[in-house]
Amino acid sequence: MQQTESATNRGAVAALVIATAPGASPLARDLLWRSVLGRPLISYPLHELQFVDELGFCGLVAPRGHRSKGLELLHSIAPSDYNQFMTPPDNTWFKALAALCDTPIFSKWIIVIDATFPLMTAATVRAGLRAANQTGIAIAGEPVKETLKRVHRRDVIETPLRGNLRRLLSPAIFQREALERVLDRYTASSSLPDDLVALTRLAGVPLTVFDAGYPAVRITSEDDLAIVETLLRQRESEAHPS
């Protein structure tokens, strides 16, 4: 892999794959462990990390009941020097990040991957590293295709320009120093929400959005699973044409 401007050596990157994303339903979290094309769906974003040469740590944040399978996947797929299965008390990814920063693992860049977006690619990660190198924190996004309306009670009061709107996806990528500033603000008040955009603004850390570059299907239902399976089958056929 061609080295990015943001990470140039082995161990510079730590990754957290989150199987307990905020707002995800119990069904969505269970679907991540469903077999798709012969292997658990959650293994697909883990597999993409094989192509991030700078990876030195990989953590999988998932419910305790998946510990055995999660460790098996980490050891068989994730190519980092150090792997860890993490179960924060309330499964919030900010607390998983705080736990990572408290460990002796040091990485310049920390990637947070929401596993409910299983079509993320290594190319997305590399684009995010380049973007985060400019401001400290970056998150994948895609242009909003729908026409949205601002309403007050039941009255339409504004039609925002779609060119200024983005749907935020996965991953989020942090320069460690910027992340520590965000976490300091997070741990200083238990009333702050687990919302990346709000927290980065409160901490005074710039946040940039980069092009996700993958089909942004989020796993929320059996129908989503069927769509993802079709897209993964297409991806594999393009990578290995007969």
Account of the protein in words:
The protein has a seven-stranded mixed sheet, with helices on both faces. A two-stranded antiparallel ribbon has the order 2-3. The protein contains eight helices and eleven strands. With 242 residues, the protein is α/β, with parallel strands linked by helices. The N terminus is likely disordered. 35% of the residues lie in helices and 24% in strands.
Descriptive tags:
single chain, 242 residues, alpha/beta, Spore Coat Polysaccharide Biosynthesis Protein SpsA, Chain A, 7-stranded mixed beta sheet
Short description:
By secondary structure, this protein is of the alpha/beta class. The chain has helices at 26-31, 43-48, 67-77, 93-101, 122-135, 176-188, 196-203, 222-239; strands at 13-18, 35-36, 39-40, 55-61, 82-86, 109-114, 137-143, 150-152, 155-158, 166-175, 207-211.
Secondary-structure topology with pairs:
Elements: E1 13-18, H1 26-31, E2 35-36, E3 39-40, H2 43-48, E4 55-61, H3 67-77, E5 82-86, H4 93-101, E6 109-114, H5 122-135, E7 137-143, E8 150-152, E9 155-158, E10 166-175, H6 176-188, H7 196-203, E11 207-211, H8 222-239
Parallel strand pairs: 1-4, 1-6, 4-5, 7-11
Antiparallel strand pairs: 2-3, 6-10, 7-10, 8-9
Helix pairs in contact: 6-7
